[in-house]
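Fill in residues.
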């Protein structure tokens, strides 16, 4: 919900409960109280790290070295509007010396601190990674191409569409390192069982040595052009939602300084495949992180 001028509003919410999704990822269920504002599946909220006293020294160090104030962090909603809580799913970001410019600030705290029952302030709701109002007139097939925590907003989109009985069918292709890294796996499998004619799920795993043990819907390797050609025969009429890692601003800056091209990540690679296959850019929605 936003003000008439489009500015998001600040809310004070309670962390109703925390669910561990994977070794480095949790979902925070946020209680907005009885007057919960409306939102759209696929949107995000912002969380300002300065509200947490435990992060004060780290934030000050980062601000000194960056030469600017630490900004709020954006977190996609894993929930759909019909569900009782507004949920965000947070992955604990890594710090890799020589590869990562600065250590993460907020995500380690949200993932590892005992936050159940605590109050925090959020800014919402924002984002255009949503289903169009006329989606049923625009297509009968929605393709979701996601990697890692890119699953978060698409999980909300699929739950919302199935709950509302929208007619387009959904194909979801999840790319992860290992089977244990796959977010919402059991919930998505339950949705597929409940709606077999409307939801199809496939996986690609990049670091599994024996992907066959997980069944015929699991492939090995990264998302390839050949796989997309197989899954998306209706490339002129489908809508595609792509969410996952993209080249970070720091990597782009480093590439300019060294005059070497930045290595494409999931987003750049998948968009390249889609364009090669003839999917019009106007039929592609994207949400990138990096």
């Amino acid at each position: 919900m936003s003000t008439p001028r489009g500015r998001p509003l600040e809310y004070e919410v309670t962390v109703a409960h925390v669910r561990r999704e994977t070794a480095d990822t949790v979902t925070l269920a946020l209680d907005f109280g009885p007057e919960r504002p409306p939102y759209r599946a696929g949107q995000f909220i912002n969380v300002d790290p300065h509200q947490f006293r435990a992060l004060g020294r780290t934030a000050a160090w980062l601000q000194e070295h960056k030469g600017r104030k630490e900004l709020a962090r954006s977190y996609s909603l894993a929930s759909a509007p019909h569900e009782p809580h507004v949920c965000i799913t947070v992955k604990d970001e890594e710090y890799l010396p020589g590869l990562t410019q600065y250590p993460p600030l907020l995500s380690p705290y949200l993932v590892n601190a005992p936050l159940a029952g605590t109050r925090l302030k959020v800014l919402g709701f924002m984002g255009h990674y949503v289903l169009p109002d006329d989606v049923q007139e625009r297509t009968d097939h929605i393709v979701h191409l996601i990697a890692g925590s890119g699953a978060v907003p698409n999980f909300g989109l699929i739950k919302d569409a199935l709950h509302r009985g929208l007619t387009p069918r959904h194909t979801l292709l999840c790319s992860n390192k290992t089977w244990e890294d796959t977010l919402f796996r059991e919930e998505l499998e339950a949705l597929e069982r409940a709606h077999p004619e409307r939801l199809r799920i496939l996986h690609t795993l990049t670091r599994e040595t024996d992907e066959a043990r997980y069944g015929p819907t699991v492939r090995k390797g990264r998302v390839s052009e050949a796989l997309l050609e197989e899954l998306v025969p209706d490339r002129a009429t489908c809508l595609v939602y792509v969410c996952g890692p993209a080249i970070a601003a720091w990597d782009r800056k480093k590439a300019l300084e060294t005059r070497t091209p930045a290595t494409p990540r999931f987003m750049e690679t998948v968009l390249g495949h889609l364009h090669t296959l003839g999917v019009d850019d106007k039929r592609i929605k994207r949400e990138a992180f990096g």
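The mean pLDDT is 93.
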